[in-house]
Predict the structure.
Amino acid sequence: MARLSREFYAGGTVETAQKLLGKYLVRMLDGKPLVGRITETEAYIGRCDKACHAYNYRRTERTAVLFGPPGHAYIYFIYGMYHCLNFVTEAEGEPAAVLIRAVEPTAGIETIRRLRFGDRPMTAYRRKNFMNGPGKVCQGFALTTAENRLDLTGDTLFVCDSPADIGLPRPDLPRERMCAGPRVGVDYAEEARDFPWRFWLEKEE
DNA sequence: AGAACGATCGACT
DNA sequence: GTCGATCGTTCTA
């Protein structure tokens, strides 16, 4: 299956966050693919960004993976209950990553639904808020710290350009434009609070 | 050893 | 709009 190569992740983090929009996140689970089209991302850059866990090259056991080669997963535990999925970017030694904030489920939807809601009944609210948050993406794709540091050029977790790369039909997509704005939940980060490093796709009329 | 806090979510007013 | 749940990571001592 064709997938994005390590070089895709090796460039600038803001640019990579933008280029990931519209691409297909694939998580293999029990031999079957869970797939989501990426619709929202955020860039985090240790060199200059007080919102980044590795700000000012702060290196701890948790952030070590950010200093490694690009194209690996950085998954951390947050708020005592949730996980967040990131892709390590830039050259080895430059700690930076893209947070995956939202996807549109494309395949494996029944498995994703069960991972998100178990046996609880589906409601309009749940349908509308299926995978529109970083904690939801990890819950729906069964990603925890057990998957931290996975190589995105491997067979468990990777990104494809096109649904055809994973044997799915190409859907009819509405016209979309990319929007940019401040990141979520980083009010503490002084000047970095206002960096417009959150990107998302929005339907046009 | 202890304490503070967080790249969130869902329930509720 | 508000607020509580819940615990690993990090820092301080």
About this structure: The mean pLDDT of chain A is 97. Chain A has six helices and eight strands. The helical segments of chain A are 6-9, 13-19, 64-67, 109-117, 124-128, 134-140. Chain A has one domain: 6-203.
